[in-house]
């Protein structure tokens, strides 16, 4: 604990904190709010761009302070000890407990530069918490993905910047790079000179054919992409039509039994259910929630209970429950079931009330599920274009009737016609594709037949393999065109690379020239300063050694003087006390002698006073002895008289008994 405090205080005294007024004692005596303020100041240094840390916590609510501290520690990656509960850690952090604040400060001050970098990165790499239901929106999802891409790009740029700044570029390294770039430049120039004659021999017609072929391949890829997009659009339209058909069927099934009497009956039933919920169920739930809230407030306002208190409370609760059960059993046994005629009806009413509560709970759950499904359905309809029946009903606010229903039917009919038209186009395209495939197969068969016939003719003419050789030559010419095109591209790239290298070399040379001019005098100056520093350091070490030796000698002498001074002072005080005692005794002796020798008898000496007191005490002792002797004699006579009187009294009692005739 002391080492921890010492480390924290030393770090706070250094820049950029500069808290020179702290020492171990003052820092240990800080209040909890002051410790939280110190923690906030440290956060402000680590994350200077966050204005929330530049605040006096007395002007901020404790909950906001705790939330801000917890979020900052989470961003910096602080982890409490394994045996620490998160809730306990949060409570101690809110209260500013030293057992939590001191380890956090030590962890922060140990690696301030790393924490600064983490805070800087956390500002740009913290992901926004977006609810999942919002991510279903295409624009929000696109922006969220774009944010992730930008974060990844930021990571790469920051990593490159870090590598660039961390790599030391000395003058020798720059010279080596320049030499290497010049060698690469010469090599590329030689290769360029070798490739130029070979490129000039390629015919322009072959280059044009390769270009056309590449354009056709790209066009085919675009057509395939368009075909896939159309197929996806058709699938979506089919799903939409199926959904609309289901909605129409649901509307038709729900349109039965729409007489005024049935509608009024349903409205009355719904009104009764709502009145029951409002007058009975919801107030009961509200009172229960208020009771729970009051109980929770009492629990939070009281201090935390220990294990022993919890055990005692549990024992009391079990005792009370057992007492309640016994009283209930006693009441049941003593109660006459035949006396209560309403017991059956009361029980039935209780069962009905319980069933009503269960039905109300079920109704509430079903309504919640219905609302959730409606929200989900509305969100899906909005994503798919918003052309469903639910969107129309939401726009109208009621079931479509008359002209609105006719417009709705017309809309469905137009969409159905569009679907049929798209379906027909798709069928036509499928038939055309099948026809083209069949045509391709027939053409391939004809090509094979022609090849076989050509082979037979070649055999007859004695030039077998001419056709295959011609095809091979065409393939080779095509490959040569592709290679020549690649060579042309490589030559262009080499040329641009050489230009870039020349530019970089010239820029590096321009940058190095002033640096080299500045470095030369600085090196000489550094050598002079280094030699001067070494000489002065040697002189300083010698003086410091002499000073240390003389200081130790003086310290030992001063320590001896202090000990001698302490001994002399104690001896001085002892002698002074003895002198005072002797002076008092001497004064008393002088007074006694003067009073004894003086002729004035009005003032008696101490000796006379003592003699007088002794004589007085002797007289008192003599008188007390005489009184003691007289008292002893009287006591003996009195004892004898009491014995005589007792005997006389006993004798008289016996005579009385004899006279009365008692035995």
Features:
Actin-binding Protein, T-fimbrin, domain 1; mainly alpha
Summarize the structure.
The chain has helices at 2-13, 24-28, 32-46, 62-76, 86-95, 98-110, 112-125, 132-135, 138-166, 171-200, 204-254, 260-301, 307-334, 343-383, 389-396, 403-461, 466-597, 606-660. With 663 residues, it is an all-alpha fold. It is flat and about 190 Å long.
Task: Give a structural overview.
The two termini are 102 Å apart. α11 runs antiparallel to α16. About 3% of the residues have low confidence. It contains 18 helices and no strands. Among the domains are: 125 residues, Intraflagellar transport protein 81, N-terminal domain (Actin-binding Protein, T-fimbrin, domain 1, Orthogonal Bundle); 31 residues. By secondary structure, the chain is mainly alpha-helical.
Secondary-structure map with pairings?
Blueprint: H1 2-13, H2 24-28, H3 32-46, H4 62-76, H5 86-95, H6 98-110, H7 112-125, H8 132-135, H9 138-166, H10 171-200, H11 204-254, H12 260-301, H13 307-334, H14 343-383, H15 389-396, H16 403-461, H17 466-597, H18 606-660
CATH homolog superfamily of one domain: Intraflagellar transport protein 81, N-terminal domain
Name the overall outline. Answer: flat
So what's the CATH class of one domain? Mainly Alpha
Quick one: how many beta strands?
0
First-to-last CA distance? 102 Å
- Total helices: the number is 18
Note poorly predicted spans.
Answer: 380-398
Strand percentage: under 5%
Q: Mean pLDDT, rounded to whole units?
A: 77
Radius of gyration: 57 Å
**Can you tell me the CATH architecture of one domain?**
Orthogonal Bundle
Instruction: Decide which structural class fits the backbone.
Output: mainly alpha
Helix content estimate: over 70%
Q: How is the biggest beta sheet arranged?
A: none
**What is the N-to-C succession of helices and strands?**
HHHHHHHHHHHHHHHHHH
Classify the fold: give the CATH topology of one domain: Actin-binding Protein, T-fimbrin, domain 1
